[in-house]
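Field log, afternoon session.

UNIT: design team B
ACTIVITY: writing a sequence onto a fixed backbone
BACKBONE:
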């Protein structure tokens, strides 16, 4: 209720809502790309599943703590992250789809449902319930900040930040700063504490963008789509065939026995084949081969026949 009574806290909370809303919308270009290409490519579902679980946890905490500004943004986050995962499941390959369904079913349904049931029916003290919910929410908030770094190995290997969205990293960093001050003003350390590490992880992601922002300069390995790769391979094979194509050079033997060669337009090719046109003498001038003597007939072979 302090967020409503204090103008400063309310203003910081509004800014925090705006920044978090921009963080939530940052993956929109990514999922528009998935929709247009009908493929999830190398994008992973883990960051979005973690973000959904974090929004659901903070939504429950905000209801217990009666924090209106924290409640509104996490309602929006829960809805939008659900839409993201639905799009991912629609275009993901079979193996990735199965993994995502298991992940969401385990974390977002089974574990979250078990937590709510235990806190609501097993913890009688309201303050203790808020403390436990806040601690769990803080732990998963850290997971949300760390989740985009799950592809750190891919970024370093390919020397490309193609699959680490810049605006997501940027708005995560700004949002962490704002919510840190909101938590301090509210004296809510469950909100303030995870945003300290969130700021550090956000700066680390920004550093990756500074290092690998120019893929050509850093020798990035482009991850081409299968259709594009097949097309490029066909073009390369055609080019190799053209370079390795033999050049036929016609040549004629003159009266003096010299070979007179003709030139082709492709003299710069690497390989060449000489075709010599040789004029044979008429059949009556062909040399007569001597006839071979007939060999003497072999004596008849004696065969032994066994009579029973």
């Amino acid at each position: 209720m302090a967020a409503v009574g204090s103008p400063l806290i309310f203003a910081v909370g509004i800014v925090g809502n705006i920044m978090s809303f921009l963080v939530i919308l940052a993956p929109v270009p990514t999922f528009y790309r998935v929709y247009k290409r009908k493929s999830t490519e190398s994008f992973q579902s883990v960051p979005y599943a973690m973000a959904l679980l974090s929004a659901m946890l903070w939504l429950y905490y905000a209801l217990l703590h009666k924090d209106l500004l924290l409640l509104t943004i996490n309602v929006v986050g829960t809805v939008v992250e659900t839409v993201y995962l639905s799009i991912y499941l629609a275009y993901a390959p079979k193996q990735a789809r199965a993994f995502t369904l298991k992940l969401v079913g385990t974390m977002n349904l089974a574990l979250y449902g078990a937590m709510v049931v235990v806190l609501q029916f097993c913890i009688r003290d309201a303050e203790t319930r808020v403390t436990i919910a806040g601690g769990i929410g803080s732990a998963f908030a850290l997971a949300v900040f760390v989740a985009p770094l799950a592809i750190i190995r891919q970024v370093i290997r390919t020397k490309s930040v193609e699959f680490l969205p810049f605006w997501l990293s940027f708005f995560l960093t700004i949002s962490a700063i704002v919510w840190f001050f909101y938590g301090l003003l509210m004296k809510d350390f469950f909100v303030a504490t995870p945003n300290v590490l969130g700021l550090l992880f956000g700066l680390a992601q920004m550093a990756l963008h500074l290092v690998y922002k120019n893929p050509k300069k850093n020798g990035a390995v482009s991850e081409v789509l299968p259709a594009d790769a097949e097309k490029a391979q066909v073009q390369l094979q055609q080019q190799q065939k053209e370079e390795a194509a033999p050049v036929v050079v016609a040549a004629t033997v003159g009266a003096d026995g010299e070979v007179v060669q003709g030139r082709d337009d492709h003299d710069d090719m690497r390989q060449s084949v000489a075709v010599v046109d040789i004029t044979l003498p008429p059949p009556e001038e062909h040399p007569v081969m001597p006839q071979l003597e007939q060999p003497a007939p072999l004596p008849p072979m004696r065969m032994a026949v066994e009579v029973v």
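LOG NOTE: DSSP finds eleven helices and three strands in the chain.
NEXT ACTIVITY: expression trials, pending approval
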